[in-house]
Amino acid sequence: MNPTSKLSFRARGILALAAAAVVGSVANRPVIATAAGADAPSLRSASPNPATGSSAAVIVSGFHLAHTAQVTAAGPDGKFTDAGDVARQSGRCLELIDSLLKEADSGLDKIAKLHICVTKPEHVSDVQQLLGLRFSAGTRPAVTYVVSAPTIPGALVMMDAVGATEKTPKPNAAGLIASKSLKGLPTAGVSILPAKTRSVYISGQSAAGDLTEGARRTMERLKRTLDFLLLKPQHVVQLKAFISPITNTAPVLAEVAKIFGTNQIQIPPVVFVEWTAPNSIEIEMIATTGDQSAAVRDSLSYVTPPGFTPSPLFSRVAVLNHGPTVYVGGLHAAAGGDASTQIREIFGALDTLLREIECNPRHMLKATYYVTDEKASNELNALPPGFLDSKRLPAASKVMVRGVAPGRTVTMDVIATTIR
């Protein structure tokens, strides 16, 4: 590449950024609960459900966003004192999440989003009961459940979370915090996405090869995407890796370390979800630009980096230039049905919910689609263009998992912003 084309490549990166409750339905109109005054940083819960300890959505405004590492109930020796007891393991996971968030001046009382993997669909009701007791008052988080094998044999539950904080990270970087309370983590315990800066959501990327080769090539592709966006590894807040086999996380973390360095504090949290296709990997990424963005008129920008073709289903990169972050809990069809029926109901419910909280599908930032079979996957490829604006498609990942809820084959996890 000659110097002129290299300059053009980097300039396009600048221009791109500058221009740029699984078991509950959302049939009822949401009730908004506000945790702070209109002019102060706030958390707002849409349709809080006391029985499940969750909300249909949580709107975060003005706070920094603390993203935790993924935790299990295993002790430092990798063993469980509560083997086979999903309620006790879930309680332990919440304790660990709380400890991590407190190291970022946050906590369960300021939680916005919980992502929970369980090994069996029937475990969901046990976890919900616990959340109902733990989040009996205040903001109840948006929650997504996925059925996945664990990274550690014996784990029945894995959790990661996003909490609101006013702890300011260092300038021009994601704030990575090495955990003092949870030893043995290969990554930072918490990372902080700064408020009032652009936040960048990179769709899942994948590459052919066995898990080690696929991880290496996928991280190289993600690094090129960061380069195009004029971002560095220090700007990355979180990675989510969909892999098979999920117990083989070591080669993925090794390839991640090649980009970020071998020191724990240099590596952002990595969340793992099982992808049921054998020897598969896909990795998505959240980053911050570290700069103010009030001069950009539109709250969202959508970018296609070089080397990628635009997709009619999703954007390769979505950028939140300014405005609140809206976390939507996992959505599924209320009554099951075939894949087409489920997906139409989910998108209809999503449209209703978003409009009730001063949002709409044109302001979706990120979507993660979890499916359990090929039919649901194919229907998702066919249906969203009828629901989404082709010029404002969210960044997205789609992964096949073991389950989402009894009798359902698809669920959807969404991040959006309000209309400005």
Task: Explain what this protein looks like in three dimensions.
This protein is of the alpha+beta class. It has a domain at 31-167: RutC-like (60s Ribosomal Protein L30, Chain: A), CATH 3.30.1330.40. It contains 7 helices and 19 strands. The strands form 3 sheets. Strands 1-2-3-16-19-17-18 form a 7-stranded mixed sheet. A 6-stranded mixed sheet has the order 6-5-7-4-9-8, with helices on one face. A 6-stranded mixed sheet has the order 12-11-13-10-15-14. The chain is globular. The termini are far apart.
Helices and strands in order, then pairings?
Blueprint: H1 3-19, E1 32-34, E2 42-49, E3 54-61, E4 64-68, H2 86-102, E5 111-118, H3 123-134, E6 142-147, E7 157-165, E8 175-177, E9 190-193, E10 199-205, H4 211-228, E11 236-243, H5 250-260, E12 270-274, E13 281-288, E14 300-303, E15 317-320, E16 325-331, H6 339-356, E17 364-371, H7 374-382, E18 395-400, E19 410-416
Parallel strand pairs: 5-6, 11-12, 17-18
Antiparallel strand pairs: 1-2, 2-3, 3-16, 4-7, 4-9, 5-7, 8-9, 10-13, 10-15, 11-13, 14-15, 16-19, 17-19
> N-to-C terminal Cα separation, in Å?
40 Å
CATH architecture name of the domain at 31-167: 2-Layer Sandwich
| Assigned CATH class of the domain at 31-167 | Alpha Beta
| Unreliably modeled segments | 1-16, 18-38
Largest sheet: 7 strands, mixed
- Within the CATH hierarchy, at the fold level, what is the topology of the domain at 31-167? 60s Ribosomal Protein L30, Chain: A
What order do the helices and strands follow? HEEEEHEHEEEEEHEHEEEEEHEHEE
Quick one: how many beta strands?
19
Task: Tell me the strand percentage band.
Answer: 25-35%
Largest beta sheet: strand ordering? 1-2-3-16-19-17-18
3D shape: globular
Going by CATH, what is the homologous superfamily of the domain at 31-167?
RutC-like
Q: What's the multimeric state?
A: single chain
> Helical amount among residues, as a percent range?
10-25%
How many H/I helical runs?
7
